[in-house]
Amino acid sequence: MSVIDWLTFNVIFILGYYLKWCPFFEWNKDFMTYLTVANISYVIALQFINISLHHRQSQPSMVLSNTSRTSVMFVMFYAAFLGMFTDANVPSALSSALLAIALFFATSAERLFLRSLINKRRRRGHDLVNTVICGSDEMLQRAANVMNNVWTGYNLLGYFSDKDSEPLVNHTTGDKLKRLGDKDMIMDFIENNHVDELYIGSASIDPDYFKTLLLLCDKNMIRVYYVPLPAYGEFRKAKVKEFGDIYIISQYDEPLRDLRNRIKKRLFDIVVSLLFICTLFPIILLVVFIVSKITMPGPLFFKQKRTGYDGRDFWCYKFRSMKVNKDSDKVQAVKNDPRITKWGAFMRHTNIDELPQFINVLKGDMSLVGPRPHMLAHTDYYSELISDYMVRHYVKPGITGWAQTHGERGETKTVDDMRRRVEKDIWYIEHWSFWLDIQIMMKTVSDAVRGDDKAY
Fold first, then answer.
1. Cα dihedral 51, 54, 56, 57 sign
2. Quick one: which of 24, 56, 107, 149 has the fewest CB in 10 Å?
3. Residue 250: which H helix or E strand, with range?
4. Is 75 helix (H, G, I), strand (E, B) or coil?
5. Are 218 and 206 in contact (CB under 8 A)?
6. CA proximity to 205, closest of 223, 189, 182, 222
7. Which three-class secondary structure state does DSSP give residue 229?
């Protein structure tokens, strides 16, 4: 935590304390207790959420997202510590919310300002990393695109490749990047120039030459990075792990393979689904039962076999929103679908029809957040057309998901529509975190309140 970050936090806290909780500007005993607990809480909150302004791929959205999570976590720790370890009054929910909001805006402004200073420094040629690329395939071109972004602070000296290979270009100007020679000229270049990092394509160099090159890079303290082939690099977050006395690379990074993460997610699912089923669900059930019986004949619930975790089938529950029809297990809902009643359209537009799936969550067939489960006919169809379609079943399906909160909801008119959904589902699997689930759930509630045009 930087000194400026710490100062910003303390200024905001002191102002918040005096403006909201203390009518007089005096340093009393309670104030020192509040201030001490607040600083301890803030330092602990920062340990859970890393905020690195100088990281070369750090984006403003990442800074804002991490700052918001830090603010919320700080308030949680602060209220908990005050209640457990001190005699001081715990601030009200409103005061806590105001403090979190003020902290978010102040620290966001401070961090974005510092980030702009770092940006200006790099634009002036300071804090640069001299890089060289070996190869010229599609993935190396993507690496070059990152290095050509002024903010990242890379100084791409050029690349080595075969004479007949496709040239690398600067994506911002369209100009060809400097070709430094054939691949066998890399070692001479390294010994005669200052290079900090070397990026090598997976199929770029002969193995014997490659081993000699690595020894030379170690001698000259040059960090080496391996860039995968396009076939292995698309939408992947590969992970290196120990396997006996060797290291292997997984095709996917799956945080939920960790037992601790699975337990954390399952406990959260159980607590939230129980709370909902025991409080709001009976009221909603009664309202839906009355209106459904008045507006459309047939059963209240609709159940359908869908593909779940590890490719296993399960019965998924919903409030029925369509007239009883023989195509419900084969044909997906489309815009202005004549099978959907007016009341059913309202339920689908506000996500009310999905609420019985909290029962699926409690049973363990589903999670609160995950890839949406598809009907069996869709699984059979799309698994033949999209090679990584079944990867979305590495985790439990969810009532809501990353894809649904990012534009991929409703009818899939083309295979490309489903492919985009699958890509987002896999992104979720590889980037899962407890806070990501919270973010998705909050976005889902917000969408339900506003209504979703694709919910039909």
1. positive
2. 24
3. strand 246-250
4. helix
5. no
6. 182
7. coil
Per-residue pLDDT band for 367 (boundaries 50, 70, 90) equals very high
Token reading at 418: 């489903």
Q: Closest Cα to residue 182, out of 202, 161, 156, 205?
A: 161
pLDDT at 205: 65
Q: Kindly report, residue by residue over 2-22, the tens digit of the pLDDT.
A: 677 788 888 888 887 777 655
More confident residue, 124 or 332: 124
SS3 80: helix
Contact call for residues 124 and 154 (beta carbons, < 8 A): no
Q: Which residues contact 302 (CB under 8 A, 6 or more apart)?
A: 317, 318, 319, 320, 321, 322, 328
272, pLDDT greater than 80: yes
Asked if 68 and 100 count as a contact pair (C-beta separation under 8 A), the reply is no
Contact (Cβ atoms closer than 8 angstroms) between residue 406 and residue 447: no
Q: Which residue has the higher pLDDT, 385 or 447?
A: 385
Which pLDDT score is estimated for 138? 84
Q: How many other C-beta atoms can be found within 10 angstroms of the C-beta atom of residue 355?
A: 21
Pair type for strands 239-243 and 246-250: antiparallel
State the Cα–Cα distance between residues 149 and 147, nearest whole angstrom: 5
Report the amino acid identity of residue 133.
Answer: I
Question: Two tokens at 5?
Answer: 């970050």
d(CA 186, CA 267): 53
- List CB contacts of 452: < 8 A, sequence separation 6 or more: 349, 351, 409, 410
Round to whole Å and give the CA distance between 13 and 40.
Answer: 13
In order of 69, 71, 175, the CA distances from 45 in angstroms are 9, 8, 45
Encoded amino acid at 118, one letter: I
**Residue 28: C-alpha distances to residues 39, 88, 91, 345 (Å):** 17, 12, 17, 59
Could you tell me the two tokens for 132? 């060289």
Both structure tokens of 353? 């029809």
Q: Which tokens belong to 253?
A: 């990074």
Q: Assess contact for 199 and 132: CB atoms under 8 A.
A: yes
Rounded-to-integer distance, Cα 115 and Cα 277, Å = 45
**Alpha helices, DSSP H only, in 220-353?**
230-233, 259-278, 280-295, 342-350
Give the Cα separation of 261 and 433 in Å (integer): 8
What count of Cα atoms within 13 Å lies in the side-chain half-sphere of residue 361?
27
Phi-psi region of 351 (alpha: psi -120 to 50; beta: other; left: phi over 0): left
Query: What CA–CA distance (Å, rounded) separates 401 from 432?
Result: 11
- Side chain identity at 102, as an amino acid letter? A
